[in-house]
TrEMBL record:
GO terms for biological process: cell wall organization; teichoic acid biosynthetic process. Coiled coil: none annotated. It comes from the Bacteria. Belongs to the glycosyltransferase 26 family. TagA/TarA subfamily. InterPro entries: TagA_TarA, WecG_TagA_CpsF. This is N-acetylglucosaminyldiphosphoundecaprenol N-acetyl-beta-D-mannosaminyltransferase. Catalyzes the conversion of GlcNAc-PP-undecaprenol into ManNAc-GlcNAc-PP-undecaprenol, the first committed lipid intermediate in the de novo synthesis of teichoic acid.
């Protein structure tokens, strides 16, 4: 698997179909592996947090979630040409699971949200086998871990926000013995209809960030990370 590195953080040079093929391989091999979504904000945070950087790089697959990562790859002559967003990957994995019989477990989000999202996904993908659902407000972690082990899913989606969800995954993945684990952030809120996503045209044009900025103008400080990230990437390229 070809990986590119930006400011010390790995990103897989894979498109959506290639990631889904890797998902099949991971489930077939049954070796616990996890997927993490990479965007400029995470990469910049990892500059000041070695533990976070090591966490991101320890993933089996680092998907190019942010448009800034695509731009950085183009500027560096890399191979990444399209985003693989976490929510789109989750939905595509669920579609594949419905066709191949993979068992899915959903953990996280506020009470009721995961159930609502699961209902939407099961209506969309007939035959999708969701074997377990737990919200993220549990008090007994061992109880949750035991339930997951008992249900023995092929895929575990964890919605706790990043990087909390990734730390939870890496701390527990060996004892859970689930082949594929993936942090999905706020995807359940979108799938359940609690939060509206950008129109498809804006997503295809890589302008989802602009839609979110218009809807949530207080996010401007987070959006300002993108030009800083690209400047650092260019500087690193010319310093080599």
């Amino acid at each position: 698997m070809i990986k590119e590195n930006y400011l010390g953080v790995d990103v897989c040079a894979l498109n959506m179909e290639e990631v889904l093929d890797e998902v099949d391989n991971i489930i077939l091999q049954k070796k616990p592996s996890f997927i993490v979504a990479i965007n400029p904000e995470k990469i910049m945070k990892a500059q000041k947090d070695e533990n976070l950087r090591n966490l991101l790089n320890s993933a089996s697959i680092q998907i190019p979630d942010g448009v800034g990562v695509v731009i950085a790859s183009i500027l560096n002559g890399g191979r990444i040409r399209s985003r693989v967003t976490g929510i789109d990957l989750m939905i595509n994995i669920c579609e594949r699971a419905s066709k191949k019989g993979y068992k899915v477990y959903i953990l996280g989000a506020k009470p009721g949200v995961a159930e609502k999202a699961a209902k939407v996904l099961k209506n969309k993908f007939l035959g999708l086998n969701i074997v377990g659902i737990k919200d993220g407000y549990f008090k007994d972690e061992e109880e949750v871990i035991n339930d997951i082990k008992e249900k023995s899913p092929d895929i575990l989606f964890v919605a706790m926000g990043s990087p909390k969800q990734e730390y939870w995954i890496t701390r527990n993945m060996e004892k859970l013995n689930v082949p594929l684990l993936m942090g999905i952030g706020g995807s359940l809120d979108v799938i359940s209809g609690n939060i509206k996503r950008a129109p498809k045209l804006m997503r295809n044009l890589g302008l989802e960030w602009l839609y979110r900025l218009i809807k949530e103008p207080w996010r401007y400080k987070r959006m300002a990370v993108l030009p800083v990230f690209l400047c650092k990437v260019l500087k690193e390229r010319f310093v080599r």
